């Protein structure tokens, strides 16, 4: 699969595809999908969270989905931050799919099999709210696919009609 046109707008992009690529892309666009999946591979660096936001924003705008850019940026930021915290030092994969008219799926894959956990953060806690935000923005439509050498966390964001 050739890289999407938005890759040139994202710094720190590596075009190699790691082991979780098939789980993110699922191959070419199906008859049900509006467009081919978009994917970017990022290094495990704190700057990659901002690069993931830029990638998602640019791709969603290219698809004409401007209304979900802000929520998608929050979701991918939280998932990419969690990926960074796993301690895995392979590459992080960020993907977008548009499987139906009313859904955009945000995916973040990494080389760790450590499962994400939604915490009950206290009022004074400085972290621990990320997955609760993802849960709220997606109305509970998120999950994890374990792979032999990692995982893919996915979040389905509704597109306003």
Gap from first CA to last CA: 31 Å
Evaluate the radius of gyration: 15 Å
The oligomerization state is single chain
Average pLDDT metric: 79
Structural class by helix and strand composition = alpha+beta
Treating each run of at least 4 consecutive H or I residues as one helix, how many helices? 4
As residue ranges, the low-confidence spans are 1-22
Shape: globular
Please state roughly what percent of the residues sit in beta strands, choosing from under 5%, 5-15%, 15-25%, 25-35%, 35-45% or over 45%.
15-25%
How would you characterize this protein structure?
The protein is an alpha+beta fold. It is built from 4 helices and 5 strands; from the N terminus they run αβααββαββ. It has a 5-stranded antiparallel sheet. Helix 2 packs antiparallel against helix 3 and helix 3 packs antiparallel against helix 4. The protein is globular, with a radius of gyration of 15 Å.
């Amino acid at each position: 699969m050739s890289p999407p046109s938005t890759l040139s707008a994202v710094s720190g992009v590596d075009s190699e595809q790691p082991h979780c690529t098939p789980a993110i892309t699922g191959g070419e666009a199906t008859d049900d999908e509006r467009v081919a999946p978009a994917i970017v591979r990022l290094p495990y660096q704190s700057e990659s969270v901002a690069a993931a936001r830029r990638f998602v924003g640019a791709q969603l705008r290219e698809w004409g989905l401007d209304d979900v850019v802000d929520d998608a940026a929050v979701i991918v930021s939280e998932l990419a931050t969690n990926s960074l915290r796993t301690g895995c030092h392979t590459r992080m994969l960020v993907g977008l799919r548009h499987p139906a008219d009313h859904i955009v799926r945000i995916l973040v894959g990494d080389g760790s099999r450590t499962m994400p956990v939604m915490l009950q953060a206290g009022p004074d806690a400085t972290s621990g709210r990320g997955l609760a935000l993802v849960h709220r923005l997606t109305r509970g439509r998120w999950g994890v696919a374990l792979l032999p050498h990692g995982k893919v966390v996915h979040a389905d964001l509704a597109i306003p009609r």
